[in-house]
Design goal:
The complex is a heterodimer of chains A (about 160) and B (about 425). Chain A has helices at about 5, 10-15, 65-80, 85-95, 125-140; strands at about 30-35, 40-50, 55-60. Chain A is built from five helices and three strands, in the order ααβββααα. Chain B has helices at about 1-10, 20, 50-60, 75-90, 105-120, 140-150, 165-175, 195-205, 225-230, 255-260, 295-310, 310-330, 355-365, 380-385, 400-415, and strands spanning about 30, 35, 40, 100-105, 130, 155, 180-185, 210-215, 230-235, 245-250, 270, 275-280, 335-340, 345-350, 370, 370-375, 390-395. In chain B, strands 4-10-9-8-7-5-6 form a seven-stranded mixed sheet, with helices on both faces. Classes of the chains: A alpha+beta (about 160), B alpha/beta (about 425).
């Protein structure tokens, strides 16, 4: 059995208590909802992307500590980075959480995100850690929100002028 | 004068010997990471005692063959043991006839049988099915599927803040279009024991049949289908110390006889020709194909095991566990019990302020304590109480007061981590 306490370390508990970038952007260019029906975790993610750069990102939702801390640290990690960087981190994070990437080996870009490496020993919790990243991936790739300008978002267009 | 009398009374009713019972369950001796297993996930699945394990071994090593087929000795033995198991289950729930016990793969399968066979035959456009807020998804979704296919409507009995059904509202839900009531005997998420006998009587006054989902009741209280007068009663083997993959649908003979088969195949026919196939009588009509023979025999052994201890003694011990656990949890600051009905089975659902149930579950597991966390396949219940999920400790008769203490210590440990 994995040492769960090793997973619930201070950095994760801190992000759970005081999540960074918590809330919703008023005029996001991209958005997505993540939902894990198994445990009821819900994440609502909003982004402001322009010129291929993630200028702003925010999340809110109802979730366990692992999911919330993962979302918080993800927003901190991708804010100010390019879409391509974010997609690369998504791939690396997923590989780490599923045991395909050794966080101790060189060549990855996960940095502090390696605190989540322990979930690979807790199969039922892997999804909790990955959910925010899947949501980010969905937001960046969803057809409906593929345009980068907030004005093109039908949710924010004036009535009758969508 | 009073004291000796009390002593005498206590002496007359021997204490429940939980340690002797625990010795029957090899898995309870397990250590996880050096910590003794504290198994409090009995509402999901109960553990199996040695007599049931032994019975399965004996069947598999000396009695197995297909049933109802050949004239050879083994087939006759297997058929005899399988039908003997049916008799045991019929006695276990006090059915009038053995053939009123239909072996299914579990409660879900049993409810689906009624939904597909009885439901599709008797429910039409504009008709109504009454279920309750407390139902497990397996007593909601099959009815939704029938309702969608037939253009019928689902009506839902609400609950109060304690998790008790509002019987006045139940009465108001009946219309001339009500065709069936489907209600759980005991709520898996909250532990509420529903007043099913009363609800059945009420439905019968209007000529409406009632299906009772007894998955959470069969292991914990005496089930008497004749006393309840239910039309259908469904339960699972693995929740009452039997094997998985086996369960029972009880149905009144008159209803079962009128119902068309659910599955077609071997064993459910009297004769087959391409012009006309004649179905077999009860119970074979509903047991197409080779059934889980070992499962049925194992379940028969489980029913014997529980009956030997006595469901009343089991229920009494479990109430002690529940009362003690409830009192201890109430002492903990920041912990709220969800489901505080006056009549409960040994289920304790709770939430801890500031800690998601999944984190609770992982950290309790770290201490060897197995609980269930999540929505317990009862999302309408979670929605009603405004929580996404709960942590659920569910007790069986082999649990101890010391294990309740371990749970309390575990919860304190969780709270320390999240302080």
């Amino acid at each position: 059995m994995a040492d769960a306490k090793a997973l619930y370390q201070e950095v994760i508990l801190d992000h759970n208590r005081k999540p960074r970038n918590y809330g919703a952007l008023e005029r996001p260019s991209h958005r997505a909802d993540g939902y894990n029906p198994l445990c009821g975790d819900r994440i609502h993610l909003t982004l402001q992307v322009s010129g291929g750069n993630i200028g702003a990102i925010a999340f809110e939702g109802e979730s366990c500590a692992i999911c919330k801390a993962s979302a918080s640290m993800m927003t901190a990690a991708v804010k100010g980075r390019t879409r391509d960087d974010a997609e690369m981190l998504f791939r690396e994070f997923r590989e780490m959480a599923t045991g395909q990437l050794d966080p101790g080996a060189p060549g990855h870009h996960l940095g502090r995100l390696t605190v989540f490496a322990g979930v690979r020993d807790l199969p039922t919790r892997v999804k909790c850690a990955i959910l925010p990243w899947h949501t980010l991936h969905a937001a960046l790739n969803a057809e409906a929100t593929a345009t980068t300008e907030a004005d093109a978002d039908p949710m924010h267009a004036p009535l009758g002028n969508a | 004068m009073n004291a000796p009398h009390a002593v005498l009374k206590a002496g007359a009713a021997p204490a429940f010997d939980v340690e002797r019972i625990r010795a029957d369950f090899p898995i309870l001796g397990l250590r996880l990471d050096g910590k003794p297993l504290v198994y409090l996930d009995n509402a999901a699945s109960a553990q199996m005692p040695q007599p049931v394990i032994d019975r399965l071994v004996r069947y598999r090593s000396s009695q197995h063959a297909n049933i109802h087929r050949a004239v050879h000795t083994l087939s006759e033995t297997a058929t005899h043991e399988y039908e003997e198991a049916r008799r045991k289950l019929a006695r276990f729930i006090n059915a009038r006839e053995d053939h009123e016990v239909i072996f299914t793969s579990g409660t879900t399968d049993a409810i689906n049988l009624v939904a597909y066979s009885y439901g599709r035959q008797s429910i039409g456009k504009g008709d109504e099915i009454i279920v309750t807020t407390l139902e497990h998804h397996s007593n909601i979704v099959p009815w939704q599927m029938v309702a969608e296919e037939k253009g019928a409507r689902i009506r839902v009995v609400p609950v109060n803040d304690a998790g008790e059904l509002l019987l006045d509202e139940y009465e108001k839900l009946f219309t001339p279009r009500t065709r069936l009531v489907a209600v759980g005997h005991v709520s898996n998420a909250l532990g509420t024991v529903n007043p099913v006998k009363l609800m059945i009587a009420s439905a019968h006054l209007r000529g409406v049949p009632v299906l009772v989902d007894g998955a959470q009741a069969a292991p914990h209280l005496t089930v008497d289908v004749r006393d309840l007068d239910c039309d259908f009663y469904a339960f699972s083997g693995h929740k009452m110390c039997g094997p998985t993959g086996i369960g029972v649908l009880y149905g009144k003979t008159a209803l079962l006889e009128k119902m068309p088969p659910f599955k077609g195949g071997g064993d459910m026919i009297l004769s087959v020709s391409f012009e006309k196939t004649i179905y077999a009588g009860l119970p074979n009509k509903f047991e197409a194909g080779t059934p889980p023979i070992a499962g049925a025999i194992g379940l028969g052994a489980a029913a014997d095991y529980l009956s030997a201890i006595g469901l009343d003694a089991i229920g009494a011990w479990e109430h002690q566990l529940l009362d003690y656990a409830t009192a201890r949890v109430r002492e903990l600051p920041g912990v709220r019990i969800i489901g505080t009905a006056a009549r409960k089975a040994a289920v304790l659902s709770f939430v801890i302020d500031g800690v998601h149930p999944h984190d609770v579950g992982t950290l309790l597991n770290q201490q060897g304590i197995a609980v269930r966390t999540g929505h317990h396949c009862a999302q309408p219940v979670m929605e009603r109480f405004g929580v996404p999920a709960t942590t659920r400790a569910s007790f069986a008769f082999y649990n101890t007061l010391a294990e309740v203490d371990a749970l309390i210590a575990g919860i304190r440990e969780v709270q320390k981590v999240f302080l």
